[in-house]
Design a protein that fits this description.
6 strands; globular
Length: 284
C-alpha cells in the first residue's frame, strides 16, 4: 500500500535511515512486525486521539517496531525501556532542521513515557489551559494504559486552573473534580470533596483547581489529607505594617513616592466643562 503523511518529502530520508539502522525494510514492514505480535500501534494511536496526524500514527508504528527489534537483542526488557525506544521512532519523524529535531522532541516524548511507566513516578500533571480539551484525550489514554505495566496506579491530573474552571472542565469531559483547600502556614493540601462526573475511563482523570501557584504545586505532591469540612478561602498572612483604610480623599489621590530619586508627580491639569451648542437648523 502507498503510505503518505504530512511533510513526507522532508521526513522520509531520516525515516529510511532509522529503518536501515534496525534492519527494517520500510514502514509497511514496521507495521507487520507489530501486527504479527498481536497489536497495531497505528490503530491504537487513532483510538487514543482521533484527530492525530498521519505522521504521528506512523511515527508510533516505527517506534514500536524499533522497540521489538531491540527486545530481540535483549536491549529492551521492560515497558519503561520500550517507551524510550519508541521515542527513537518519533525522533525519526521530526523534520530535519526544525525546532523539534534540534530539541530532540521525539526522544523527549519517549523518555517521558519511560518515566510514566517507572514506579518512581507517582503523578503526571498536565498544565491545563486553552488546550485542556485536546490534552484530556492523551490523559485518558495514559490513565488507561500506563497502569497495565505499573504496580502502583499512576495519578493523572489536570492542573493550572482556577477552582471554578477546573469543575467546569471536569463536568464537560466527565472527569473527576477534586476540590482542595491549601493551608498556607503548613503547606498542607486537604481534599475537601471529590466529584466524579462519569463512571467510565474519563473518571480516572482528576481535575484540580488552585487559588495560586503554591496550591497548584501542592496538588502534584503527596502531602495531602482528606477532609469533608466546607472549604474556606485561605487566610492571608498578617502584615507587620498596619494598614490604614483609605479615606474618600486619599482614594482619589495618586500614591506618593518616598524615594528621593523620583520626581514629584506633575499636578493634574484642570479640566474645563464644555457646553455644546445645538446645531442650527438646515436652510433650504
Amino acid at each position: 500500500m502507498a503510505i503518505t503523511f504530512e511533510g513526507y518529502e522532508r521526513r522520509i530520508a531520516q525515516i529510511n535511515k532509522a529503518c536501515e539502522q534496525y534492519g527494517i525494510k520500510d514502514l509497511e514492514e514496521a507495521l507487520k512486525l507489530c501486527t504479527d505480535r498481536g497489536f497495531n500501534p497505528y490503530d491504537i494511536t487513532t483510538g487514543i486521539q482521533s484527530i492525530a496526524f498521519e505522521n504521528a500514527k506512523w511515527a508510533y508504528t516505527l517506534g514500536c517496531a524499533i522497540a521489538l527489534k531491540k527486545a530481540e537483542k535483549g536491549e529492551v526488557t521492560t515497558a519503561s525501556e520500550a517507551a524510550a525506544a519508541i521515542g527513537e521512532g518519533l525522533q525519526a519523524f521530526c523534520v530535519p532542521g526544525s525546532v523539534a529535531d534540534d530539541r530532540k522532541v521525539g526522544l523527549g516524548h519517549g523518555n517521558l513515557g519511560a518515566m510514566l511507566l517507572g514506579e518512581d513516578t507517582e503523578c503526571f500533571a498536565f498544565l491545563a489551559g486553552h488546550e485542556s480539551f485536546a490534552a484530556a484525550e492523551g490523559a485518558i489514554g495514559i490513565a488507561n494504559n500506563a497502569n497495565k505495566a505499573r504496580k502502583k496506579p499512576l495519578r493523572v491530573i489536570l492542573n493550572g486552573l482556577g477552582k471554578d474552571a477546573a469543575q467546569i472542565i471536569a463536568r464537560i469531559n466527565g472527569f473527576t473534580y477534586v476540590k482542595t483547600q491549601f493551608d498556607y502556614y503548613t503547606s498542607e493540601l486537604k481534599v475537601v470533596e471529590t466529584i466524579p462526573y462519569s463512571d467510565g475511563p474519563r473518571a480516572k482523570v482528576n481535575c484540580y483547581g488552585a487559588d495560586d501557584v503554591r496550591e497548584g504545586v501542592a496538588s502534584c505532591g503527596t502531602r495531602t489529607s482528606t477532609s469533608r469540612s466546607p472549604a474556606t478561602p485561605p487566610t492571608p498572612r498578617a502584615s507587620s505594617t498596619p494598614s490604614r483604610a483609605p479615606t474618600s480623599r486619599s482614594a482619589r489621590l495618586p500614591a506618593r513616592s518616598t524615594s528621593p530619586w523620583r520626581r514629584a508627580a506633575a499636578p493634574a491639569a484642570r479640566c474645563t466643562r464644555t457646553t455644546w451648542l445645538p446645531a442650527p437648523p438646515p436652510t433650504a
